[in-house]
Structure prediction request, 1020 residues.
Amino acid sequence: MSIEVSESAGGATYRENAEALIRLRGVGKTYERGGEKLKILDGLNLDVPKGSFEALMGPSGSGKSTLLNLIAGLDRPTTGTLEIDGKRLDQMSDGELAKWRANTIGFVFQSYNLLPVLTAIENVELPLLLTNVASSERRKRAQTALRVVGLEDRMTHYPRQLSGGQEQRVAIARAIVNDPKIIVGDEPTGDLDRHSADEILNLLQKLNKELGKTIIMVTHDPAAAERATLVRHLDKGALK
Amino acid sequence: MTLTSLAARNIFRNKFRTVLTVLGVAVAILTFILLRTVLNAWGRGAEFAAKDRIVTRNKVTFVIPLPKRYIDEVRRAPGVKQATWANWFGGKDPKHDREFFATLAIDTKSYFDVFDELSLPPDQKAAFLADRRSAIVGDMLAKKLGYKIGDKVTLESGIFGNDPANPWTFTIAGIYTTTSKSADRSTFMFHWDYLNEASPLRAQDKIGWITSRVENASGAATIATQIDQIFDDKEMATSSADEYAFRNSFLAGVSAILKALNVISVVILLIMMLILGNTIAMGVRERTNEYGVLRALGFRPGHIAWFILGEAMLTGLLGGAVGLAMAYPLIEGGMRRAIEENMGQFFPHFGIAPEVTVAAFALAVVLGAAAAIFPAYQASQLKVVDALRRVA
Amino acid sequence: MIPVRYNIRSLAVRRATTAATALGIALVVFVLASAMMLAAGIKKTLSSSGRADNAIVLRKGSNAELGSVIEDPSVNIITAQPGVKKDGTVPIAVGEVIVVAALEKIGAAGITNVQMRGVPDNAMKFRPEMKLIEGTMPRPGSAEVMIGTRIRGRFKGLELGQSFDLKKNRPVMVVGIFSDGGSSYESEVWVDRDTLKSAYGREGIVSSVRVRLDSPAAFDGFKGAIESDKALGFDAMRETEYFDKQSEGTSMLVGGLGTLISVFFSIGAMIGAMITMYAAVANRQREIGTLRALGFSRSSILFSFLLESISLAMLGGIVGVIASIGMGAVKFSMMNFSSWSEIVFSFDPTPKIIITALVFAAGMGLLGGFFPAIRAARISPVTAMRGG
Prediction:
């Protein structure tokens, strides 16, 4: 009931942003730790238009990771509504969320998270296994994605045979292989040296400009934030 | 805070895994104890056998009986105190077709002198001796087949003919118990005289085997040889051995199974080592950089190895204790009664031997250590810098 | 679907752990399969001795030939019953004497019983499957014997050209070795019937009479005729049924003992698999979180880890089965409880046993991997973010 109310209230305020791809209204997130309730986000409103490249910044504990998890569909808000591309994430079951993520979100993690036992191309191919794409076509698309990140000559290498920057580029290839609308980055340059970090940021920019991907990225790095079209600051669960 | 308590603390680091490992070791120890107990019980039958009793039977095959006059010769042999005889009747109660029990035709005049572990209330004994068509049964058999004193029981013989007009019918005159563990409490015994009279003429005066009691158990082997010498040139040669040796030769027939059980009881220990070694190796791998820290603080490779060995031995100890705690109620509480009552003739005594307990416990600890030798060696050989850099 | 090679390679990466766990399972499967193969070998040995169109007649109440006594005059009455096949006017039948003799076993302490069969001249003709494979046929009425191929060399004197005493000062010489497709006859010594009878004081009697029937269907008529004469006091059985009964106790003991032990063992091996799989799940939390983040469902994670556990167990299962097939070369001699004499058995690896053993291994993997897989499926996709 309270969700309905907050939706109608928020809806009036943000009507001019009807084109937004991502739309949060009165979103709150509370965790329970040892019987104690921990309010991370409270009554957050946010609109992200299609095709933007946004950086989320803020001190540790500000709630930026929580916000990113919500947008990525990894977690559900405790209160409020979360609508992405016309779908209500807050009303989805775990299974529906998983399916939704597979179609809509591409992930780039801080520590790459490639499966160590799969080769580069197998890692990239992984998300396609959730679709009905035929195996020869899967291979082709994975190759294309690796070409986009400039690693077509490293296809059969295992993650441990690659440098950090190369691993992250494979991760980006994996993030784009099923053509998601949104790419979510969690400190994508956090583990990298300056040079590799720049390469990754160039790539993300390219994806945003040339392929029109909407990118949301949490970062500590001011140089990374500079590449974004919009920088949002989060503090104590509120956007500034 | 001691080095030992540091090792002990690591055990409770991953409580869940420790619980599983202890459980795995416990099941292995339980199985080991169970197998050893079966093997012991198998051999135990012989162990409880009287060493001062000699069994004399046909040398070539026990199926063919001896002439009755052999008994007199045995009684005259030096060193023999008493002697009696019995025939295997191969009886079966057609009402309980699937129940196997021993049926003996005994010489009632001498049998109880030689087998003094059979105890029968005086009035029942008197009744049995008075009626040559009566029988006595062991208390276990009576319980199993529901025989009561005064019951009429008809048996079919697998060896002596069964004449429908004149069946083998007996009155139960008594129910015996025994004072010795090895004696079978499921035997059906009746008068040899009755069997003899009922047999056709040419089958009369034949006795299955002779059991004699000697004055001195230590001389039994010599006396057995002397008895055999008496009959060496007669129409049928004999083979004599004290009861202990006799039961042992019976075991030879199933020696292959015993050998297999022996091997299997070692296999379960191997499985236990694999489980324990695996757990220890996983723990070591996850803690590699902690060992690096310890080394950096100045601990020597030997310390690291001891941490790991100590952890393994303690886990083995716990598993052994839990295994024993499971084995005692299961074997002593549950199985013992069931097996001694139902399979008394094979397993007169079924219980955990103290030395098996000690061995199981010691093996759990020692094999625990053995399983940890390799991971302990590896961890102690790591270079400090490498160990520190290693992330689980 | 998460690809299977993900699981296979994960197993390969944790080589030592995988090997230790699989070896544990292999040992269990080895014990189980060997016991089943031995039980099957016992059944096969004893039941391949029988023919459907043979009937065996024993003294009523006798469970085995050893304890049965049939007087010579009754033999002709038995063979004259309806349903018995004739060669011209002569019924096709054999009356044989069975005794057991204690012989010295080679390579083991003590003496063991060996079954001796006193056979008439037509005993081989009655069993056309039987073949003399070495030496010559014993001359009728002589002190020559032949022995089954399975006991040759296992007892003192039981080898071509050697001799042993039937009784004191009555030596017989082994002149021939016969085979019979692995049947229990191969564990017997065949002696001339009259020689055996006089040596053992069994004049005037035989232990059993076997007759060839006109057809397997003629059995009921034959049995009816034999058993209707109560005064004779005989039992007629199909030979196949008789041998089935002979193997019952022994194969049940081996099969039962094997199954019981395997159940206990498998608990241990299952706990081993569980420990390994829990560790696998714990070490790969971030991987699992990533898969979940990429959109793989809980059930596909569950399935993937079950598959990994089953693959692990199957690896052990295959090794165990192969090792147990190796037992085929081993001869296992033990007492047959119905004849009190030693019979040599072999391990018989039937396809059914191999499949059962592998299914058993898979079952251990499934059960051992079940709870770890559930834990894996519960890992939140949020675990993928940061260090997790």
In short: Residues 194-210 of chain A form the longest helix (17 residues).
